[in-house]
Amino acid sequence: MVGGGQLARMTHEAGIPLGIRFKLLSDTPQESAAQVVGDVVIGDYRDLETLRAFAQGCDVITFDHEHVPTEHLRALEADGIPVRPGPDALVHAQDKGVMRARLDEIGVPCPRHRIVRDVADVVAFAAEGVPEGDEGDGFPVVLKTVRGGYDGKGVWVVRSAADAADPFRAGVPVLAEEKVDFVRELAANVVRSPHGQAVAYPVVESQQVDGVCDTVIAPAPGIAEELTLQATELALRIAKELGVVGHLAVELFETRDGRILVNELAMRPHNSGHWTQDGAITSQFANHVRAVLDLPLGDPRPRAKWTVMANVLGGDFPDMYSAYLHCMARDPQLKIHMYGKDVKPGRKVGHVNTYGDDLDDVLERARHAAGYLRGTITE
Fold this sequence. Notes:
Strand content: 15-25%
Shape: globular
């Protein structure tokens, strides 16, 4: 597995019951997965020769991030190393411009969008969205660097031409998108194997705070059955059309007029699927392992009526272990998953899962535990 973050750590954990031997390429020995995997290579995933040396003896290569250069993945395939998902699929999660163009080709509903070269292009794009007879200028619009963004990084909501210069200073292509008037964000998580078997998890609601996922509710409360079926069909169709192998998360907007639009794609285990560790019969991590090894996929159905995942973000209290006493005594059903990271303000250092029949109770338990671990709740 290339990448030593928490996704690799939890995927390794899912492989242990199957006797899967993991080899990890990690940037540093301190990374989350490097602390627990037995066979760790420290190296730079951006260096082709490092990747080639790492891949020797591996049955298959998979990832916990999308940042390995596409041309390096093609070189590994040329060397006879199975790469899952392959470069032809993964490029759609690496490059937002490529992703939007391909989704347009296959008829997937997306926000209005265009690659822009400068501020004048942004102004023209914004004006194109102004309804006839409206005297507005079309702002705000959303600007995204086509590569490298995550957790709100590389994304700007610009409200005027004066705000639009910053994204171009990085010297990389920029994608302009309409600012969607949405009710909430959803996510459809599916897993697909090389021989075409696919499974779909319940569509979830994903709540963001400052561009970072804060809470996930499974299934999405109050969602119309028609919308659930549409979101699931979209995710399964995208996985097939793009040739995805492994886990695919399709992040969606539910609009005020009852539509869904595709926002982002991730071809790896995803934050919106962390609830499956304790809330589904087979977790996203276990199914990702099965998929990349072309094993039969596991049952994705939920174990409880409601499951809530709340991210634990770093705050001003680095000793989270001392908070376990309160959290575990207060809620014996609580599931805590910490990543072994140094605590820094705003950094994802873990998550908690709760489940049950009463959504208000399940939500309160998850948010209380996450807040107490962070230090924002003290009683």
